[in-house]
Fold this sequence. Notes:
Order of helices and strands: EEEEEEE
Number of strands: 7
Helix content: under 10%
Distance between the termini: 39 Å
Radius of gyration: 13 Å
Structural class: mainly beta
Strand order of the largest sheet: 1-2-3-6
Amino acid sequence: MAYAASFGNRLSGASSTESxxxxxxxxxxxxxxxxxxxxxxTYVRNGRTLMNKVAYNGKVTGSVWDDLRWGDKYTTKFYWxxxxxx
Length: 86
């Protein structure tokens, strides 16, 4: 089973997909016609940032590996946000 989520729109947004229930692939995009200065995504586990990527003009991607142990502190979480308006 694979999990996928996409947020925002074609000009400014982010997405996360889970591959084989062990690897997370993230992306953020922010194109020149977007009203925002940037868009970013972050993967966090147990309060620790695993990856943070920011797109200013174009698209950025990155992947993190999941922790196979059970429990909330081993859960990988995905966050995204937009920067200030231009």
